[in-house]
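Please predict the structure of the following assembly.
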Amino acid sequence: MPQASLPPVVVDRVHKRFELPREQVHTLKERALHPLRRSAVDVLHAINGISFAVPPGEFFGIVGRNGSGKSTLLKCLAGIYAVDSGAIYVNGRMSTFIELGVGFNPDLPARDNVMLNATMLGLSPREGRRRFDSVIDFAELGEFVDLKLKNYSTGMMVRLAFSVMIQVDAEILLIDEVLAVGDAAFQQKCFDEFERIRASGSTVLFVTHDMGAVRRFCDRAMLLERGHMVELGDPEQVGNRYLELNFSEQAREAEKSAAAAAEAAETQTATPDASDTQSDRQSTDRQSDLHRHEAQAAAQDAFGRGAEEVAQTSAATTSETGRLAAGQVEAEAKRADPQPGEDRFNDGAGEIVDAWFENDRGERTGTLSWGKPCTFVAHVHFNEEIEHPLFGLALQNGRRDPMVSASNLLTQPRLGVFAAGEQVTFRVTFDNVLAPDRYRVTPSVSRHGGAWIDHREGMFSIVVTGTRATGALVELPYDIAVDHAPPDAAAISARVGAAGAADAGAATSASVPVESAP
Amino acid sequence: MTGLGRPIKGPSALGSNPRRLWHLTWTLARTEFKLAFFGSALGYLWQLMRPLMLFGVMYVLFVFILKEATGHFYGAYLLMGVVMFTFLSEASGGAVTSLLDRENLVRKIEFPRLAVPLATVLKSLFSLGLNLIVVAIFLFAEGGSLDWTWIELPALVFMLAGFAAGLGMILSVSYVRYRDVRPIWEVVLQMMFYGSPIFYLITKVAKDKILGIKASYVLMANPFVAILEQAKHAVISPTYPSAFKALGDGPLILIPVGIWLAVIVIGFVVFDRQAPYVAEQL
């Protein structure tokens, strides 16, 4: 019996790295020919100093993207991999379910496979035989006991494996994504079983991608990213962070390419004879030579500070020349951070210089949390005088359904006259009730009649994160109430009374003393 | 930091519970043995067919064509050698790839790693047990009889299994690192087949003018040969020399015994050292 005061699982600064040889030396011949050559190895730090403790009875979730190290961690916990440094302590009987049906052999009937699997999981053959019937009962496979496993459907096989798994009573369970299996009815059964395990006070460590399961079962969760723990705590919060991480990967890729472009820009300025594109531009646009240097400096800054700020300041301080500079900054920025999905129409009379989303704290962001207010902001610059322009914003979800279409057309169609060179900031604020998804953002500016001045279809995209995912296009906040009126209170109390009397009668006839609950 | 519970040290050769090692070895061996029988109509007969075919060919060759058969109950003598060699070759040859064949277990679950090569040996041991019955039948058919010296046989089989396990331990972990262990081992086995008195008599080697007694001692240094000789002496006929006698009634017997022990000890040490990393290296 474990001591109650000790946490069932303690992980103390665990490191695990794998050496991946660039060319695997597999044969003695290679060794013999190159006895001294140490093959080059890539060292992969799968787990980097992770520490945590799981208190008794907790359902602890481990989440992370592919390659984040969560399965490696589980395998270290399970004792499949030896850790490089740090220590793992376990207090109690532990069972691991890295995979369902370990050791299953398709050529053997269910009976042998159950025995095999049970032995692998640590039951003795005698225990295995004793529990065989309950395994088969739980899996609902009574009539297929003597059927070879290869003739089972996948679902049947999974049911069998899961049934064996839950027969191993352990105080600590390590489970690696085994829930996403079986048909709906069986899945429900598995969930029920998990609830039972949870209620029985077992400690569970559960690795998954399924945020729904994390929210549903876990008391606490941990988020791993590249071998580091990035979040530990409330499953809701961890779930949101996970989604953010997941969707911001593309943004990070873009950042990386921007950094690369910045480097490229630096080398360009270092050598006065610039690249083809630059000399092309020089020939076509000789008079703005001076501004080009400005623009380039600005562009370099832009990668440090954010292109929009620079574009904005340079555009605001100068008029005609500023426009050029801003345009070039933008061109540079676009080159650095291409928007592959963008489809732009521009008639030259003005342009949307930059646009972004801000969260409820006014920070520029690529991910928006569900249920929070958010603001779309766009900077528009007019090159010509425009009367009563229309500013619009459209959002499309992943299936390209139009989800938001906002403009001043209905509320304020006549904004007046905007002068050439004028800088306009246009905002749309709303409470974000959009379902978690990726949204394409399309800002546009058009003339009063509706003709586009600048229309940037899919200029960028934002991600809405949230753990509510019902499949609806929007996740409206709602209250739900169920009014329940019993048909006849008197009839019910009569029924209850009769049942109680019957019970009492049974008790007396069996002459068993019955303690009635107070 | 002690007193936090049981530290998880990662996989090992033996594990913490010897009963679990045994249960696993037994279950794995039994399953494999069963699988060899399922799916074919004649089951065990096929299992027996390979040694029997080899035996049949050699019997015809040496008895009828070369007329070399000189010992008592030559049929049983030959079959005994073939059956025991088949065991060694099956057990060690199977052990070579055993860890790789069991990849799905090794990478997915913590268990005493030693169960894998041991199960291969145990499974071959089941076959050997059945095949030895056939040897006995042959012996009786040739006019041999049950002798009290047969009680040596279980001990000899146990020693042979130990030798196979020792080889299996070395070979299985080496194969994880170096894939050409397998072809090399196949060649070694073939050499061992001809280097063992299976179809010839060790006494004939000793009496040979060119080879001489020293050559017979060299052959006898192989623990397999020593075990085989002793088994033939104990089971087939006492006219065949015991291992002790074949090694000159002297301390030379310590050579095969020493090699036998070394193979097992080195095998275990090598396996034990590599066991924690097998899952990563597969």
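The mean pLDDT of chain A is 73. DSSP finds 13 helices and 22 strands in chain A.
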